[in-house]
Design goal:
This protein has nine helices and ten strands. By secondary structure, the chain is an alpha+beta fold. The protein has two domains: about 60 residues, no CATH class; about 190 residues, Muramoyl-pentapeptide Carboxypeptidase, domain 2 (2-Layer Sandwich). It starts with a strand and ends with a helix. Bound molecules: zinc ion.
């Protein structure tokens, strides 16, 4: 007989504190089955968890960690920010800052980056994660300093890029090159591409990962490959399917904003 336990979610929740805390706590628990680990109840630990034994596998978890799967309206719970939240003009449409809006593998790299920086005393805020075509088009109309890519050409539109900013005394610090360098190196240690290496535009808050595939391939719906996929992300196909559904909802929502 077998029982299913959530382990990593608890561990993850303990690792982080504000301001990314709120996001980390609901880390993809809704539809990512990699948090579950099977235990063989024939061993000595059987007694302590026997009350959970049932004919069907039972999800054992702390009550506050039980998260209902909302495959219909889940996208509405994604965190967003309004223009000027971090002191810069980023256009009229809200920016999605939800880390769960990212490809799960990339999201976990970003969480590791946030944690690495925190250990160095650097707090990071998420400025934008997933970006709709409508939002990308808005940036395009705002000029080259915002983006050089039209709709469908930014990694943000595939959940494979994120913009971060270091926070000091609750203020975003955009112009400290030495600080950016530390953040950038932390990202590169995770194997991410860092926009601080670019000249046009120099984009030190931007991190992306594509698993080596091109933007054209992404536009065709191809997904990046990565190591240990089956071991750590057994539900990746389902996760991406639901993510795409949420992305589409956001697209509908923001393109109606664009028409107003
Ligand atoms: Zn970016």
């Amino acid at each position: 007989m077998r029982v299913v336990l959530t382990l990593s979610l608890l561990t993850l929740a303990l690792l982080f504190s504000a301001p990314a805390q709120a996001q980390i706590e609901k880390l993809f628990a809704s539809y990512d089955c990699r948090f579950y680990e099977e235990l063989d109840l024939d061993d000595e630990s059987a007694d302590t968890i026997s009350s959970f034994v049932a004919a069907e596998p039972v999800l054992v978890t702390a009550p506050e960690l039980i998260i209902t799967i909302d495959t219909i309206n889940g996208w509405k719970n994604w965190s967003t920010i309004e223009n000027y939240t971090f002191g810069k003009d980023r256009g009229g449409m809200p920016m999605i800052t939800e880390l769960n809006a990212l490809h799960p593998y990339f999201r976990d790299k970003i969480i590791a980056l946030i944690k690495d920086c925190r250990e160095q005393g650097i707090e990071l805020a998420v400025v934008e994660s997933y970006r709709t075509h409508a939002k990308q088009n808005e940036y395009k109309t705002m000029g080259k300093k915002y983006t050089r890519s039209g709709a469908g050409k930014s990694k943000h539109q595939y959940g494979l890029a994120v913009d971060l900013v270091p926070m000091v005394d609750s203020m975003a610090v955009w112009d400290d090159v030495a600080l950016w360098k530390k953040v950038g190196l932390a990202g590169e240690r995770q194997g991410l591409r860092w926009g601080g290496r670019w000249k046009r535009p120099y984009d030190p808050g931007h991190f992306e990962w594509t698993g080596g595939i091109t933007t054209a391939e992404l536009a065709q719906g191809k997904l990046p490959a990565f190591a240990n996929k089956d071991e750590h992300y057994p539900c990746i196909e389902e996760d991406i399917k639901l993510l795409r559904k949420y992305w589409k909802e956001w697209e509908v929502n923001q393109s109606s904003l664009a028409r107003r």
